[in-house]
Specification:
Blueprint: E1 10-13, E2 20-25, H1 28-35, E3 42-46, E4 49-58, H2 75-100
Antiparallel strand pairs: 1-2, 2-4, 3-4
Length: 101
Amino acid sequence: MNIPTSEQETVVQYDRNGETMTIYTSDTTQMTRLDKIYSRHKEHRQAGEVVAVEYVVDKGLLSYRSKRGKRVLTDEQKEAARARMKAMQNAMKEKRLQANA
């Protein structure tokens, strides 16, 4: 049973004095992401198919971040980054050639 993406949700719940938080999600993208980090605490099924998952994790992992600032580089910094990227691409190309030889 597929849930339409417009109805998929993720809810983070914790109380002030507790040490853990519960992450409930029916969003398949978030399930995939969270499965790589945490083990599933509880699965919610409909017609035998998993439609939502709960994860219980340490509340200390929760982070509120401010908006990212835009990085401003000088022309010299841009050129140095360009040169590093070109060197990395050449090294990867060389490595592929050696692996295929």
